[in-house]
Amino acid sequence: MTYNKLKRIDLIFHEDCECRKVLEKTFSKSNDEIINDILESGLKGRGGAGFPTGLKWKFTAEQPSDERFVICNADEGEPGTFKDREILFRVPSKVFSGMAVCAKVIGAKKGYIYLRGEYRFLLPELRKALDAFHRDIKDLIDFEILIQMGSGAYICGEESALFESMEGKRGEPRNKPPYPTVAGFKNKPTVINNVETLVYAFMICKHGPMRFKELGTSDSRGSKVFSVSGDTPIAGIYELELGMSLDNFVEEFGDGDTKAVQVGGAAGFCVPRKKFRETIIGFEGVPTGGSMKVFNSSRSMYNVLHNYLGFFEEESCGQCTPCRVGCQQLIKGVEAVKKGEKKAVYLDQLLKLSETMKLASKCGLGQSVANSFSSIVENFREEMIY
Amino acid sequence: MPEVQELVKNLADKYGRKRENLLHILQGIVEQERYLSDVALTEVARELDMSAAQVYGTATFYTFLDTEPRGKYVIRICRTITCDMKGKNRIIQAIEDTLKIKLGETSQNKKFTLLETNCMGWCHEGPAMLINDQAYTNLTEDKAIEIVTDYVKNK
User: Fold this and answer.
1) Which of A39, A44, B14, B127 could make an S-S bridge to A50, C-beta 3.0–4.6 Å?
2) How confident is the model at residue B1, as a pLDDT?
3) What contacts A247, CB < 8 A, 6 or more positions away?
4) Average pLDDT of chain B?
């Protein structure tokens, strides 16, 4: 077997950025040219869902309205994800600049950063950086960025729940459509992008689309910041080219005894060792918002699943029945099987329930509980029982 | 004017009295008082001309907007999988023993509350905890005791 070392990339954190100069250069282009550059690069959303960023900007720009908004989603709550914190800490002006480019393209006068409450300690430095940024660009564009704090609700990372929260309400997801590009914050056309997406958009403005496009695969262009944790000797934040196999990933990050990797956090998929080689990290394989959790053979996958289900049970907003009751029943169910109060075949009932939740839940939270549930139960069934 | 009423009025003056300002105001109260008392919630409802039920319903949606009395320092230990694997239970035990309170409780002198919280984004440096806004990572039992003892003595 030839072992290809994973390709480290240094686009995001590289401290080379003369943001104002890049913004001047970008603003000399027409809006269509900028959108075409972003489309050409193949950039897809880095929060996990993977919608093409250029299209999002284009749809929002085309939507007739007297007011539009750009929002930076910094409600990074997916277990195992911590890259946005690092980006906001180390290169905040690149985030602001990405928002400014988006604002120019869609015609927004106001932008917001929705920062999770757990990251409040970032606020003083972020405010300082933001003041400097506003001073720096005030003759370039009429655009102001405000910071709004979250208060410890995972669901507010879901875009429509985030709008609700910003409007001073319970963070309960809305029905879609309409999508945010049509009716987002205050029911106005809104671009909402992940922190990392905005920085990549800005890097594409700086280096041109080719520099990004030549990385990755046809379905997953570019690089991505990964948050690596769990049973690894080198936990941390790494920017890597997309499209690697999980085999290569584990070779580099595992502790030599890796049993499974949870790709994409609690809402993602658990991949067992026997599937490492065939699993590609990217939109054509297993997508991730960045969370990579490595488990070695000393770990009980029952405990992992139980921890995730407890997380979902608590973080479900409770608005729709499949998710609210489903999460409760899944956790009760696996506990009953483990204790021997239910027969092992009861797990099949629970798998059906998780499928129903996927079909019937209103938002991504309830829809994705089945991802980790079925991938853990199917691959580690005996650990659920004995 | 009682203290809470004045606080709510000042926050409403600062942020505005529209629905979209509600979370800012509630967050501002928690920052000062550590929790939202019934008096504070009704006062917010009055200032913003909303029903108290709506204010309460919004507040209780958010984990960090506590509606029960909390200590001056709220300690939140991350309970999600990586911190769990790295031994958060031992950290909780050590802090319980140091402060003589159980998980979920507030110390007699109203200085500390000990809680668990969901993933707070420090999985690579777990176990982790927040004391109010401050994050502490790579905890060991000794380190956690040292940090907490410093709060006991010096804050």
Assistant:
1) A44
2) 55
3) A276, A277, A279
4) 96
Minimum CA–CA partner of B76 in chain A: A118
Residue A15 pLDDT > 90? no
pLDDT interval class at B103 (50, 70, 90): very high
Residue ranges covered by each domain of chain A: 19-213, 223-296, 301-385
Tell me the nearest-neighbour CA distance from A37 into chain B, angstroms: 33
Q: Which residues does chain B have within 8 Å of residue A153's beta carbon, measured at their own beta carbons?
A: 61-63
Residue with tokens 């707070």: B120
Chain B nearest CA to A253, separation (Å):
12
**What's the topology of domain A19-213?**
Rossmann fold (3.40.50)
Check if the interface score ipTM surpasses 0.90: yes
Report the residue of chain A nearest B136, measured CA to CA.
Answer: A121
- In this complex, is the C-beta atom of B32 within 8 Å of any C-beta atom belonging to chain A? no
The SS3 call for residue A175 is coil
What number of other Cβ atoms are within 10 A of residue A187's Cβ?
14
| pLDDT score recorded for residue A326 | 98
List Cβ neighbours of A174 (8 Å cut-off, separation of 6 or more): A160, A161, A163, A164
Helical spans, DSSP H, in chain B: 3-15, 22-33, 38-48, 52-59, 81-85, 88-99, 141-154
Interchain proximity B80–A79, CB inside 8 Å: yes
Contacting residues of A for B134, CB less than 8 Å apart = 121
Task: Specify the pLDDT at position A2.
Answer: 42
Q: For chain B, how many residues are written?
A: 155
Residue B145 has pLDDT above 50, yes or no: yes
Residue with tokens 């104002």: A20
Given the candidates 3.40.50.261, 1.20.1440.230, 1.10.357.140, 2.60.120.10, the CATH classification of the domain at A301-385 is 1.20.1440.230
Instruction: Say if pTM beats, i.e. exceeds, 0.90.
Output: yes
Q: Check whether A216 has a pLDDT greater than 60.
A: yes
pLDDT of residue A351: 98
Cα A358 to Cα A365: distance, rounded to the nearest angstrom: 9
Output DSSP code: residue A273: G
- Give pLDDT tens digits for A99-126: 999 999 999 999 999 999 999 999 999 9
Architecture of domain A223-296: Roll (3.10)
Q: Stretch A82-104: mean pLDDT, rounded?
A: 97
Number of CB pairs, chain A paired with chain B, less than 8 A apart:
118
At residue A19 the predicted structure's pLDDT band, cuts being 50, 70 and 90, is: very high
Distance CA A88, CA A109 (A): 22
**pLDDT in the model for residue A3:** 46
Mean pLDDT over the full length of chain A? 96
Contacts of B122 in chain A (CB under 8 A): 82
Nearest C-alpha neighbor of A317 from the set B147, B63, B26: B63
Map out the domains of chain B with their CATH numbers. Answer: 3-61 (no CATH), 73-154 (3.40.30.10)
